[in-house]
Amino acid sequence: MPHADAPAAVAPLFEPAGDGFAAAQTTRGPWDERMMHGAPVSALLAHAIERTDPGSELAATRLTVEFLSGVPIGPVAVGTSLAKPGRRFQIVDATLDADGRRACLARAVRLRRADLPQAAAAAPVPPLPPPEAGEPLAPFAAPGRELFHPDAAEIRHVAGEIGSGHAAAWIRMRGDLLPGEPPSPLARAVAAADFANGLSHVLALGDWTFVNTELTVHLHRHPEGEWIGLDARTLSEATGIGLATGVLHDLRGPIGICAESLFVEPR
Question: Positive or negative, the Cα torsion across 196, 128, 250, 87?
Answer without folding.
Answer: positive
